[in-house]
Design goal:
The protein contains 4 helices and 8 strands; from the N terminus they run αβββααββαβββ. It is of the alpha+beta class. It has a domain at 7-166: Zincin-like. A hairpin with a 7-residue loop joins strand 2 (48-56) and strand 3.
């Protein structure tokens, strides 16, 4: 059996992401970010997302934790440094949730943009230097020789590696004739039906409704850029 198949695939891969979270938390955020559950979630047109208080403890009702999700479909063709830059992008949303003042749902405001620049990621709605730094749909690029660039190089000089991504061409075909999908508000549970990959907002909660079996956040828009779509997601 080859080395990459030894041990627990689940614990090994998630330990890598958890280790990266702790690494960047210490070096870029002064260790102030709370622990969260890091998950791999697929969502069309999304690199990942951050969601506040997404999980509640099964035995201790007062306990809750955030979710930071990454989309393995978007790992294909991207370097480990680019993938963990998405992790840090979402960590900036986590920082704003717990240490700043989050903006309205889906909007990336000046406080978030300033934190991104501080940690070495330049916000841009195009993924290039000509893009807007605030707005509803946002991505970023890595600032050369910035603090993230250096911290990531130090991490990659250790034994850190990401090993798994979605299989190329592995997306399941849609059932023939199925042209509507169920969407649910994550806050109130209200349901709606629309075409696949639609973008729906709950009028009661002003939350983006989620396709059943999918999740959301940092979205690749034009070309290979990554654009967040919800307030506490990317």
């Amino acid at each position: 059996m080859s080395d990459h198949r030894k041990g627990s695939l689940t614990s090994n891969e998630y330990a890598g992401f958890e280790g990266a979270y702790e690494w960047f938390n210490a070096r870029l955020f002064g260790g102030v970010l709370p622990p969260c559950l890091i998950t791999l979630q697929r969502k069309a047109k999304s690199y990942g997302y951050f969601a506040n208080d997404r999980f509640g403890h099964r035995r201790y009702q007062e306990a809750s934790t955030d979710e930071l999700a990454l989309n393995p479909d978007t790992f294909v063709g991207r370097s480990d440094k680019e993938i963990v830059s998405t992790l840090v992008h979402e960590m900036c949303h986590c920082w704003q949730q717990h240490c700043g003042k989050p903006s309205r749902t889906g909007y990336h405001n000046q406080q978030w943009a300033a934190k991104m620049v501080e940690v070495g990621l330049m916000p841009s709605d195009t993924g290039a230097p000509d893009g807007k730094q605030t707005g509803q749909h946002m991505t970023h690029y890595i600032i050369k020789d910035g603090v993230f660039d250096r911290a990531a190089d130090e991490l990659l000089a250790t034994s850190f590696r990401l090993n798994w991504q979605s299989a190329v061409g592995g997306e399941r075909p849609r059932p023939k004739g199925k042209n509507k999908m169920k969407y649910t508000c994550p806050s109130c549970g209200q349901n709606a039906w629309a075409k696949p990959e639609a973008s729906l907002m709950c009028g009661e909660c002003m939350e983006e409704m989620e396709a059943q079996g999918a999740e959301e956040r940092e979205t690749p828009a034009r070309g290979d850029t990554e654009q967040p779509r919800r307030a506490n997601d990317v």
